[in-house]
Amino acid sequence: MENEALLKEFSEATAKIKEQIHRDIIGQNEVVDNVIIAIIAGGNVLLEGVPGTGKTRLVRSMGQTLSLSFSRIQFTPDLMPNDVTGTNIIRKNENGDLVSSFQKGPIFSQIVLADEINRATPKTQAAMLEVMQEHKVTVSGVSYPMAEPFFVLATQNPIEQDGTYPLPEAQMDRFMFKLNMVYPTEKELADIVNLTQEDQRERAEKVVDGETILHMRQLAVGVPIIDDVLNYAMKLVHKTHPEVDKTSEVAKKYIKFGASPRACQALITGAKIKALMNGNFNVSYQDIDELALPVLRHRIKLTYNAINDNLTVDDVIQKLIEETHKGK
Amino acid sequence: MLKGFNKRLKLEKILQGSIYALSGGLFISAILIACFQGFKLTDWYFYLIAIGSGLLVFAIILLLYIFINKVKEKDVARRIDQSFNLREKAATMVEFKDKDSLLIQKQREDAKKSIKLNSPRKLILKITMASLPLPLLGAGAFTTSFFTQDIVNMLTVEDEEIDFDDDTDKIIDEIKDYIGKSQASAAFKEKLYEILEQLREDLKGDTSIPSRFAKVEKAKGEVDVALDEVNTKEEIGEGLLNDETDFTSLGEVIKNAETDKLEESFKPLLDEVNTIFSIDGILNTLGERIDNLRDLLDNIDVPTSDANYKTFSDLLVKLEAIRDNVENKMAASNNVSSSTINKLIMDSQEQAKKAIEEAIENLKTDLTLEKANDQLAEDVKKLMDQLVDPSTTEGDPSIDGEGGSNNNQEGEEGEAGDEGNQETDQNQGESGEADGGEGNGDGDKGEGSGSGAGGQEGEGDGQGQGEGASGGGAETEYGSNDKVYTGENGSTEYGDVIGDYQNDASDDAKGTGDDDLEGAIGDYFDELYGEGSGNKTNP
Question: Is B88 in Cβ contact with A226 (below 8 Å)?
Answer without folding.
Answer: yes
